[in-house]
Amino acid sequence: MDLVDDLELLDEYDELEFDGFGVAAGDTSTQNKNKYDTTSAVEYRNGKDMQGIPWERLNYGRDDYRGQRLNGYRNYESLSRSHELLDSECKQVDKKGTFYDFCFNTRLAKSTVVHFQLRDLVWATSKHDVYMSQNYSVMHWSSLLQRGEEVLNVVDHVFPKQKARGARPLFRMQICSMAVRNNLMVAGGFRGELVCKYIDQPGVSFCTNITDDDDNITNAVDVYESPNGSTRVMAANNDSVVRVFDTERFSLLSHFTFPWSVNNTSVSPDGKLVAVLGDSSGCLIADLQSGKEIASLRGHLDYSFSSAWHPDGRVLATGNQDTTCRLWDVRNLSQSFAVLKGRIGAVRGLKFSSDGRFLAMAEAADFVHVYDSHADYSKEQEIDIFGEIAGVSFSPDAEALFVGVADRTYGSLIEFSRRHRYDYLNSYL
Q1: Phi-psi region of 55 (alpha: psi -120 to 50; beta: other; left: phi over 0)
Q2: Predicted local distance difference test score (pLDDT) of residue 22
Q3: Cα distances (angstroms) measured from residue 41 to each of 51, 162, 247
Q4: What CA–CA distances, in Å, run from 293 to 14, 68, 273, 274, 275?
Q5: I need a surface site. Which of 120, 259, 307, 343 has the fewest CB within 10 A?
Q6: What 3-state DSSP class applies to 41?
Q7: Quick check: helix, strand or coil at residue 427?
Q8: Is 8 left (phi over 0), alpha (psi -120 to 50) or beta?
Q9: Is-above-0.85 flag for pTM?
Q10: Contact of 364 with 120, CB cutoff 8 Å
Q11: How far apart (Å, rounded) are the C-alpha atoms in residues 317 and 294?
């Protein structure tokens, strides 16, 4: 649901004020930058809405609309199961934490969601550099320069720079999954495509359809390091297969078949284990060398679409359409040691900060939760916004948190900065 329709904006607000929002990211000319394009930390502290929503011009206030959203939003379920006992399992948390402060919101950078269940579409490579998908493109946003540019376009024919074995040119690929690590950008397509590109080099290094069936979606992609230090690309598909490619010749190294459509995978920090989630209420942990199942995780009530490993490799987080995230200790996988509850819908995005201190949990819409692992996940910061969430990403140094909002009018990139006890020193820098 687009908020521009849901909010019933008054007068000619949407025609007059948002006329320039369709400009390409990077067009920062004065005529396309009005008072609603951006929100700074100073403006926010002085009372401006974080997303620039003009509540003073609407028939109801923010709190009233929040109540309407909570009552009216319908979470998508693949399996209709009773949630009667779920609330009793969920951890009681203190929601008064503030770990990241609002820093900036820009509508010159916005993500689009191609498949409503796939929301890992925002990746930060530094506290100033963020990559996000926009239909047939990947855009780079520099928060330092306040400027964006297109770095990958797959609206027309795409050819790899070098002919790798099995590579096939692509045409008009809609991006529904992506990952950026180690200078390598990987994008998955709505018809089973896979594209790999080094962000500091021109052209596409590798592209192909990983299946022959156009109905098979590349649901998730990832870049990771194997135990021997080499870089690998993993692609999960709804043909029930997980494929692993090397990044020297982009040859297929291995493929593992599972009993259901694979919606998400994540590799443990040591590169030895992989979490496999899909169209099942159960999740698997498998040996990455052989693909053999090591453990089956039970507790979720619906299909799962997100997962993340703590940097120490001991904790796995899984996100599910039953509106919960479960935390698992790999030393005892018989049951989850904590269940974290969302407010409005499916948990479709999970990320740990690089230092392991924080876990960001993104719902399908409106809420991002940041938990403090040092407090046994019992302290939380709840980020309350409006709109479908395209993805969340910590910067590699954990100093910034980015949230992508996908909406026709209020779509934006929101930046938060980590709070430190010595923040007062910033005034002297």
Answers
A1: alpha
A2: 33
A3: 11, 46, 41
A4: 53, 44, 10, 10, 10
A5: 259
A6: helix
A7: helix
A8: left
A9: yes
A10: no
A11: 17
- CA 90/CA 86 separation, integer angstroms: 7
Amino acid at 224: Y
Nearest to 168 by CA among 223, 135, 210: 210
Q: Provide the token pair at 173.
A: 């690929």
Contact between 103 and 400 under an 8 Å Cβ cutoff? The reply is yes
The first and second tokens of residue 391, run together, are 């993805």
User: Hey, what are 349's tokens?
Assistant: 């995005």
- Which phi and psi angles does 421 have, rounded to 5°? -70, -20
3-state helix, strand, coil in the chain (%, to 5): 10, 45, 45
Decide if 123 contacts 179 (C-beta within 8 A).
yes
The reported pLDDT for the residue numbered 11 is 32
Quick one: pLDDT at residue 84? 87
Mean pLDDT, each 10-residue run in order, the chain (429 residues):
52 30 37 67 96 92 96 94 90 96 95 96 97 95 94 91 74 95 96 95 93 92 95 97 95 95 98 97 96 96 98 98 97 96 97 98 98 98 97 98 95 97 53
Q: Which helix or strand (DSSP H or E) is residue 165 part of?
A: none
- CA 354 to chain CA mean position, Å: 16
- Amino acid, res. 99: F
pLDDT of residue 215: 87
Q: What is the DSSP letter of 354?
A: T
Q: Which of 400, 404, 419 is nearest to 98 (CA)?
A: 419
Dist CA 130 CA 145 (whole Å): 12
